Amino acid sequence: MLATSPSYSRRFTAAVFSALLAATASAQSEIRIEPPQGGGPAFVQWLTRPYRPRTVPAVNLSNSSRLDSLIRGGNLYVSARDVIALAIENNLDIEVQRYAPLLAKEVLLRAQGGGALRSVGLGVAAGPQSVSLQGVTVNATGAPLSAGAGVSSGGGIVTQLGPSIPSLDPTLVTFANFQHATTPQSNTQLTGTTTLVQNTRSVQAVYSQNWDFGLNAQLTFSSNHIHINSAYFAINPYFAGNLDLQVTQNLLNGFGRAVNGRNIQVQKNNQKVSDLQFQQQVITTVSAVLNLYWDLVAFRQDLESRQRELATARQLLEDNRRQVELGALAEIEITRAQAQVYSAQQDLLVSQTNLLQQETVLKNALVRGGVAQAGLSSVHVIPLDRIALPAQEETTPLEQLVRDALDRRLEVAQDKINIDSNKKNLVGIKSSLKPQLQAFAELTNNGLSGSITPFGALEAAAIDNLVGGFGNYLGQIFRRNYPNYSAGFSLNIPIRNRAAQSDFATSQLELRQNELNLQKTESQIAVDVQNALIGLQQARARYEASLHARELQQETAGADQRKYELGATTAYQVMQDQRDLANAVTTEVEALANYTHARIALDQALGRTLDVNDISIAEARTGRISRESRLPANLPTEEPK
After folding, report:
1. Considering the domain boundaries, does residue 409 fall inside one?
2. Domain total for the chain?
3. From 185, 195, 233, 342, which residue has the greatest number of CB atoms within 10 Å?
4. ∠ at Cα 237 (235, 238), nearest 5°?
């Protein structure tokens, strides 16, 4: 037998415990509805299951393990792909929308029971925005700004017009009663007594059910056990009762599965809409956090530029002081250099503030319990990517891009689904135009049995079949010894029918509006694609112009610096060159950020955000991304000081 060291045992125990914790956290993170707990034996559980509550677990506010794996030395190192994974796993807006499919499923269960549709869920939440909007917004790129850029927060159709939908769950009603009645009699010829005493035990059970094609059936069993002190009853005590079946079928108004099952079909469509809404939330949130991430990259580059500007200003101040000491410059040059240092410090402070605030906004979008709760308030975010432009832009013809967008964009799918739901509702509303014609039939089997009395013995042969107990009484009912039959129809004709006429015409008008809105959405998508494409081209041209401007300004500043060292130019000119160079770098950084926004906006306009970023909706629904995050061996330096 091999001996194990205490340290190995501790490591093994810790590993097992960590695995158990991870498994527990994974199980707790799943959004689900727990079945009823307890209830005794299996048969009792099955019998009482519809009447015991199901429970929804408490919300999970713990972050995914990916977040901790990316923190090193008080810094959170993330790439763009890491940001996407963290957002899908931890973002609260996406987590809220994960409840939408379950909500829609429960409303479908309600509709299958004949209940009215409920409006549930929340609309798509707009993603967070960067702290500084100057030069880094989608507006600056000419990208789409239309209201039709996302799935409607209104969700599916919940209108309830037309014939009322009956409950599709069967019902069982039971009734039991005991009654004692003492009645004084003024005529003893009828009862044989001056005080009539009657004890009655009544039992009734009613089973009723509706079907979605318009049929209603009700089966009623009634039984009474009566004991009376009258001497003129042939049997006493006795059982009396019946088994009654009533059937009613709608033949015009309210006839057919398309009418009575329309809520079920509409809610199935609403389930599809809730799935689209979840996808749109993922797209919106991912696009927002990518914008935050690339803005953070831009803010960091701007901070580095401002640090170089301050270092250059301080160096110039020291050079001017030495020149003044040597008598080569006037003292006013020291004052000018000091002003330049303070101006550079102010620019640096603004840049530092933007960077720190941007880190806070981004961190908040990547965690569930808030920055402070997650222990990230003092953690700096270090991006691992640099903004790089592709060699060439989109070369696909505009017409093909529009066709692709129409196939991918979720708004088109939602509009088509809602139009289909409108048509299904219209079938029910049209049914309400018809008169109410119902055919009905009733079959009743009666029974009567009891103990023969001296009065009944006088005609025993005539009542022989009535003498007996409860078994004889039931036998009469099921043998149909004393049947009743009835059948008929009822017709209810509304004379002017104005409400139904108005509902049907109004619903048709709304349907036509929705069909036009679909066309409007498709037209707007074409506009969005073209604007996004123009915006991307504009952003690239703007960046290339800012790049050339920065390079020329850098050459100018270098030349003037050399002239200054030779005494051929003034310190003021050198300071002016450094300010212009810093501003040129800032403009270049902003242009880079604008380009990333334009690229993200184009992906949204084309409906390809999920594909471009390799996002699986199946994984997004579970909140667990299978792709691991690995940090590079050589991490960049921490937050610039």
Report:
1. no
2. 2
3. 233
4. 70
Average pLDDT over residues 185-198: 84
Calculate helix-pair angle for 262-326, 571-606, nearest 10 degrees: 170
- The HSE-up count of residue 30 (CA atoms within 13 Å, CB side) is 8
Residues of the domain holding 201? 171-210+215-253+436-492
Backbone angles phi, psi at 306, to 5 degrees: -70, -35
Give the C-alpha separation, 164 to 68, whole Å.
Answer: 55
Strands (E), 88-194: 171-184
- Cross-strand pairs, 71: 76
Give the pLDDT confidence score for residue 633 in this predicted structure. Answer: 80
pTM: 0.84
Instruction: Read off the pLDDT band of 159 (50, 70, 90).
Output: low
Predicted confidence (pLDDT) per residue in 237-278, tens digit: 999 999 999 999 999 999 999 999 999 999 999 999 999 999
Distances (CA, A) of 400 to 403, 404, 603: 5, 6, 14
Instruction: Identify whether 242 is part of a domain.
Output: yes
Structure tokens at 612: 């471009």
Pairing of strands 235-250, 75-78: unpaired
- Residue 255's Cα: distance from chain center in Å? 35
Q: Are the beta carbons of 149 and 307 closer than 8 angstroms?
A: no
Measured CA to CA in angstroms, residue 373 lies from 547, 624, 639, 641 at distances of 42, 21, 22, 26
Compute the distance between CA of residue 608 and CA of residue 615 in angstroms, rounded to an integer. 10
* pLDDT at position 18: 41
Give the CA count within 13 Å in the CB-facing half-sphere of 23.
6
Closest CA to 178 of 200, 197, 205, 203: 200
> For residue 606, what are its two tokens?
């084309």
Tokens 């009575």 belong to 260
**Residue 224 domain flag:** yes
**Phi, psi dihedrals of residue 438, rounded to the nearest 5°:** -125, 135
Based on the number of CB atoms within 10 Å of its own CB, is 478 exposed (0-12), middle (13-18) or buried (19 or more)? exposed
Distance between CA 411 and CA 522 in Å, rounded? 9
User: Going by C-beta distance under 8 Å and a sequence separation of 6 or more, which residues neighbour residue 630?
Assistant: none
Phi first, then psi: what are they for 114, rounded to 5°? Answer: 95, 5
